[in-house]
Records
---
Amino acid sequence: MKCLLITLLLVISLGCDTLDKVQPEENQQAIEEAKPKNNTGPSLPEQGSMNPGEITIKVKVMEVYNSNKDICGVSKQNVFLTNVLEIIEKGSSITYMPNKGDQLLVNFLLAPKDLDTDAIIEAKARESLCTEASKTYFTVTSYKILE
């Protein structure tokens, strides 16, 4: 009697299989219809290629320091006082985001050539934490002179 009952349950369970193997073509058509047919519609904005902690800014050089200047209590070479004109591109995880009109002391990684007071440049800079970790400063890694 137990064998008959187990066989009956097995036949019923296999007969009521919920996975329909007859309709894969219909499922494939539904998937194809759900895909967008053209790419002319609105798309997601492209992600910038900025690294975290980097920013591209347009600045005006206000003052050039020929000797070492203290930034965050550390003496640095190639320091310039700049005025922020525009934020062009920003990376993620910037602690202090400068605003238009802010004056920043920036450190150039290499000694800049042909850079004078009142020059307008587009600079790619990396943010660094000061030793006290409540302030930051920017180190210019590359730039181009606009005016």
---
Amino acid sequence: MKGTKINIEKETKEKGDEKILIGGDFNARLGDKGTRIIDKEKGEKRGSKDKANNKEGKMLWQIIEEMGCVVLQNDFAKLVRCDESFIKFTSFKFYKKSRTFAALNVTYTTFQDITSDEHVRLKVSAWQLRGNEFKKTVVDFSMGICTLYKANKFGALSLIKDSNLTGCPFPKDVYYINDMAPTSDVLPPFFPEGKWMLQLNFFNNGKVITEVQWMMTILKQL
């Protein structure tokens, strides 16, 4: 997803700002890269806490020029309802791990095997905040849960990298997912900036078994 491209190195040199930019764990992530802005005037010399996400050691301005500056900020996740004859959540916790990183941890038990797209389908609809309420947009689609993971649609595998999910089929069992936090690379290219709500409905035989609302903010400039 491309946003407004800006040459931060040029901007800071021309304006004489006493700021440098280094690899780090700025939660914009900009795909897989992390960054951090250090203000020299304040004497800040914080190092990277997320070197694994920026192995090339690229500067923020380099990443922005290559990828465009798009930031997905995860605001909140809410479990609206679930069918406890199919799935039961023992933990559903959205939390801020740091000032810049928010994520979801869940633990749940399934009571039926999920072996194909026919068993569970995911329906996603996107709602944008306009005025004081969320309005439904044209983004509305559904997909079988097995296809979602086998084809790694929308970076699905990156969302469950810290989990005991091994991919379809999913036998009935106890599962956990830690630090689930979508980044801007999971979004379609036409999402404008602003506040959004993703309505996530999981269906079994046409019946909703889980409904989640995911709130996020899309920014196109730092």
